[in-house]
Amino acid sequence: MGRPPPLLPLCASVSLLGGLTFGYELAVISGALLPLQLDFGLSCLEQEFLVGSLLLGALLASLVGGFLIDCYGRKQAILGSNLVLLAGSLTLGLAGSLTWLVLGRSVVGFAISLSSMACCIYVSELVGPRQRGVLVSLYEAGITMGILLSYALNYALAGTPWGWRHMFGWATAPALLQSLSLLFLPAGADETAAHKDLIPLQGGEAPKLGLGRPRYSFLDLFRARDNMRGRTTVGLGLVLFQQLTGQPNVLCYASTIFSSVGFHGGSSAMLASVGLGAVKVAATLTAMGLVDRAGRRALLLAGCAFMALSVSGIGLVSFAVPMDSGPSCLAVPNATGQTGLPEDSGLLRDSSLPPMPRTSEDQREPILSTVKKTKPHPRSGDPSAPPQLVLSSALPGPPLPAQGHALLRWTALLCLMVFVSAFSFGFGPVTWLVLSEIYPVEIRGRAFAFCNSFNWAANLFISLSFLDLIGTIGLSWTFLLYGLTAVLGLGFIYLFVPETKGQSLAEIDQQFQKRRFALSFGHRQNSTGIQYSRIEVSAAS
């Protein structure tokens, strides 16, 4: 009989490739939107609808995906989502109209949302406490790498006829590799416990097989039974504060901040996307190294504190150095009828690249663009030139003294880097790790999906209210409001979020059952100060 497959590397590949697919699909629209605008003559509203259509599918998946995950199993849900992703990618690659593009993006949104939930739960259940933090956080690292990969392919295919079709099609590669890895892994923790060869992966703490497991209904999430209400408070609080701190909208101004310190035109957009992407990768890898040492709670507290300081710093700097209100959408009124980018259009040479759509880390953050409608106007000297999609980076107001304000602009850039880093080693990876740990296995899929639906809905609310908020209180006060929200999030984490490092899922479940109120988790809790009851497992070591 042959040796069993190397399970830890396979689990790592499932997590990394799942995140890679998610990140790629989130960001690929940034490079595809400009040629799509030329080929189909998309208006501003149509561009918004196309970019936001991924959100529609993702919301649907967050509403029904939990039942699919709990009913059919985590592994089957991932494999099924990859089949759906393949169908969506084929639809996008062969699309001949806006309708098919929107349908394809919606199908892809459903697939990546379902896969993201199932992947985190599957990996967290399959591995032991010592590996769980690293392997689940690897999904977040895959997201940031997928974003960078999409930028690289977008750049490489920008001048290729029908290049956007290839951009959409390449998303199937990591999904197919992930499916191949899954074929060598067990269906779940139960199957792991049933095979002696797989028990070491769980550290000898695989769940009991069999009988006597409790049954939970969806409404139990809001009841006092087994402190499910406290668990839901923790889960919803994390996903809401993750969004209400304004991370997607702050990234919307990355190109403007880069431009303000001297990087203009295309270089500003490139640095804003690739530079911040590299920062995200570095911060996420740092979180992977610390999550099982410092703990989930410590990373969340540190990340939220630095987010509060940095976003407040951007707000204070913008009082002294006014910045433009962000990206603008200038529509192409008529379809060009050409394939790809015309060689003599001058579009890429004369205009700034559009800002990359916001991609959370999260992860799990939709990329619904917040855009400002402006009247189309031709380039000077060329009345027949079509309007373009540009990033307005002019700084309003009278000229400012160079030396002092240059220092303030670099300070804003530093604050932006700190903000991105803080999110990427705090809320970005840890929120989804905690959500995959705190619920009982019988309802984990539905609970995870329920919290995820609030994540997408909160992102939609923040995106749609952003311009109105700026118009009401101004850009500086908007950033300061995000800073205040981060301070409130810091208090929530301190009072409500438990430390789960070094504990098996069964031990975490026991502690939640014993603690009737989530508030009791907060003060002075650490993993060494709690007494646990070890669950006995009758299995050969």
From TrEMBL:
It is a multi-pass membrane protein. It is found in: Cytoplasm, Perinuclear region; Endomembrane system. The keyword Transmembrane helix applies. Its main location: cytoplasm. Residues 11-501 form the Major facilitator superfamily (MFS) profile domain. It catalyses: D-glucose(out) = D-glucose(in). Pfam families: Sugar_tr. GO terms for cellular component: endomembrane system; perinuclear region of cytoplasm; plasma membrane. SUPFAM superfamilies: MFS general substrate transporter. GO terms for molecular function: D-glucose transmembrane transporter activity. One of its GO terms (biological process) is D-glucose transmembrane transport. The chain crosses the membrane at residues 49-71, 83-102, 108-127, 134-157, 269-291, 298-321, 410-435, 447-467, 479-497. Keywords: Cytoplasm, Membrane, Sugar transport, Transmembrane, Transmembrane helix, Transport. Residues 334-388 are annotated as: Disordered. Facilitative glucose transporter required for the development of the cardiovascular system. Belongs to the major facilitator superfamily. Sugar transporter (TC 2.A.1.1) family. Glucose transporter subfamily. PANTHER family: D-XYLOSE-PROTON SYMPORTER-LIKE 2 (PTHR48023), SOLUTE CARRIER FAMILY 2, FACILITATED GLUCOSE TRANSPORTER MEMBER 10 (PTHR48023:SF7). This is Solute carrier family 2, facilitated glucose transporter member 10. The gene is SLC2A10.
